[in-house]
Input
Amino acid sequence: MATPWIPRLHLWEIDDQPWFPSFLRSYVQVGLTHAWTTHLPLLQPSSPATLVAAILRRVLGASVSQHTYIDFCAGAGGPTPFIERALNQQLSDSTSTNTATTNTTTSPTAPSYAAVADPKTASATAVDFVLTDLHPNVESWEAASQQSEHLSYIARPVDASAAPAELLAQYGKETKNGKGIFRLFNLAFHHFDDTLARAILKNTLETSEGFGIFELQERTLCGFTTCILFGVFILLIAPFLYWWSPLRLLFVYPLPVVPFVLVFDGLVSSLRTRTADEVEALLRTCGADCDGWEVRSGRERFLWPCGYLGWVICTKKATALT
Output
């Protein structure tokens, strides 16, 4: 990640406040989902959600299929349903390419993979994603899970600092599929103060095989500029996204609450976002045994010229690609 201009400031965001109307919060959350899933061909190599899937596949390597991915701060669903689709599509494409290459190598006259592909083969390589949150959004999660057999959710509240025993029993490494839990924090880890962040990291190290933190903002001029540009972006695309909802458009244009909150909270989120070194410092002081864990991080542009996605991925060395 880039070197921040200023120390981290744990300020408050409007969307987090209990007095902020729930219907406006849902509009803001939809706007954030668009930030993850929109792909502007001339300005973006891919959507940020697709980029996260590619990062997971690249960094985890051969172990990417050895996890169940649990989003512990899913909110209304956010990018996780899109990450699931993108990652499983990438895994399916990779399997198809490898099988086709093998068939061609072993038998020049063999039929193409497309002609003999078995759906069961593709599903065997797929990975499952689970949505959880301290405040479950069951209605949104149910709609999202209907779109994929590899996406499910936990309807009861789940505390990221104290993963329930039944959740661990259902998805932990002792299950029949032998896959471990990999926790996801998408645009979420900056919400935790240091005390809560350490508690979450401690519980994560004690109950998981890895975790990934992904943020769309940072404490740099680029990060602040991207937040402001996102407000402009919402103003430009709102008619195409919400033409069917005059009420939503009311809070975008005549009463621009949605773009204001997105920009304000985005700037505050930038001030709250930790660097990889700051995350690792919390990790080393969280009270859990860090031996045998490997921390990797990076910063990749998702929006030209100044939008960068920062990531931190931590895995047990036994499951990490070496």
Observations:
- The radius of gyration is 20 Å.
- Confidence is low (pLDDT under 50) at residues 107-122.
- Residues 42-100+117-228+273-316 form a domain with the Rossmann fold fold (CATH 3.40.50.150).
